[in-house]
Amino acid sequence: MRKLHRATLLCVAAAVSLTACAAGSGGDAGRSGPAAAPGADEKFSLTVWSNYSGREQDEVTKALESFTEKFPNAEVEHQGSQDDDKITAGIRSGNPPDVALSFTTDNIGQFCSSGSFQELKPYVERDGVDLGQIPDAVRSYTEYEGNRCAMPMLSDVYGLYYNKDMLAEAGITAPPRTTAELLDFAKRTTRKAPDGSIEVAGFLPTMLFYANRPPIWAPNFGAKWETPDGRSGLASPEWAAMLEFQKELVDFYGYDELERFRAGLGQEYSTDHAFHQRKIAMMMDGEYRTAFLEDQAPDLDFGTAPFPTIKPELYGIGFTTGTIMGIPKGAKNPGAAWELIKHLSLDTDTIVDLANGIKNIPSTKAALDDPRLEVDENFRTFVDLAKSGKLQGNPVTPIGDAHIKAIGDFATSWQAGKVTDLMAGLEDVDRRIDEQIAKSGK
User: Fold this and answer.
1) How many Å separate Cα 434 from the centre of its chain?
2) Which terms are listed as keywords in the entry (predicted)?
3) pTM for this one?
4) SS3 of 380, please?
């Protein structure tokens, strides 16, 4: 499950209009106070939509079934392969699920500000929930401007994966800690054919390919999304340094050669993934990749580490995102829905069992420290990052992922050599983002 970019993203225009077109008979906590919790012996049913499938859907269903230990007469129906577009359509038609699970934390600002996810603060306050149990970075991507409209269900943390054999063949004894070392090691582990075509890329810098996404890269360069006065802040030395680093590596390969190489690589969640097939020596990815490698490339000798940073003092920083859970506008049983969300987001045993099942990072401090959490050497990297207090979550705005798409598209043009003035280009992206936010009226 790759929440940041595997899900189909919610259309900006549709999400902005949700408040006007949403229907349904369920109660909304923001208007009438929190809905009452069901009695311990009360019979009720809940429908849960998620974008899980296959083995991961089975594991999440097990977690949902553990809810019946508290409410023996509850019936929970789990419908998988439901992306954000389907959740949005359900809300707009007046037929939403009771609980919606989304991989797309990019859209939390829209979910909260549009009212498509109900406000959870009344429930949190009524039940005395201690949100301090949740790491700060995880809390940041489940609320918007004081409106908590979602709770977390596990998280993803991103770091460096490296092929130990390839680094050793190049005389490298430890993974890179700085971006200067990453650049050097990438060149040393790259192999080209006599005709100049790339056989193995030491590191693939192509933006928007695999996990190369702007929010994942930004922390490692100290790049911030906003200026102190709240405007878009991409025209900065930090963002420029990030893009210049990527471009230097693109130019080393040659843009056309790199594109030909990339076109022949496997899909991100297939057995043909380039790292699995030893086509790249190093990459950025989340903790979930450890499970994919164990299943699909068990003979590959790899290591994990925090991703290299431009300044040594930044080392150990990183990006986190995760699955979020909300009560959609118009949900028929919001009181029971909250009890299920509270169970999935705060019950330590449930969190640990699910983390072990799908190899994601627990989203509470207690679960991170639980001795039952299965942690090997490579997974330990991501658990330590999650406990470091140095992670950063998604940038949250009322325009969903539009600002992320804007800088991603610009970075793609920059790498292709279509941008002549980097800072002027970044200033133009800032202007367009600020205009979109202003037009949203939020």
Assistant:
1) 24
2) Signal, Sugar transport, Transport
3) 0.90
4) helix
Q: What's the token pair of residue 79?
A: 């419908």
**How far, in Å, CA of 338 to CA of 108, rounded?**
18
Which domains does the chain possess?
A: 12-156+320-384 (3.40.190.10), 157-318 (3.40.190.10)
Rg (CA), the chain: 22
Q: Residue 382 above 50 pLDDT?
A: yes
Q: Are 386 and 135 in contact (CB under 8 A)?
A: yes
Q: What is the DSSP string of 402-418?
A: HHHHHHHHHHHHHHTT-
pLDDT of residue 106: 81
* Angstrom distance (rounded) from CA 142 to CA 394: 9
Tell me the CB-side half-sphere exposure of residue 244, using CA atoms within 13 A. Answer: 13
Largest CA distance in the chain: 73
User: Measured between alpha carbons, how far is 11 from 350 in angstroms, rounded to an integer?
Assistant: 33
The type of residue at 6 is R
Q: What letter does residue 210 receive in the DSSP assignment?
A: T
The overall average pLDDT reported for the chain is: 92
* One-letter identity of residue 22: A
**What is the C-alpha separation between 346 and 338, in angstroms, rounded?**
12
Phi, psi angles (nearest 5°) of residue 110: -75, -40
Q: Which two tokens stand for residue 42?
A: 């009360």
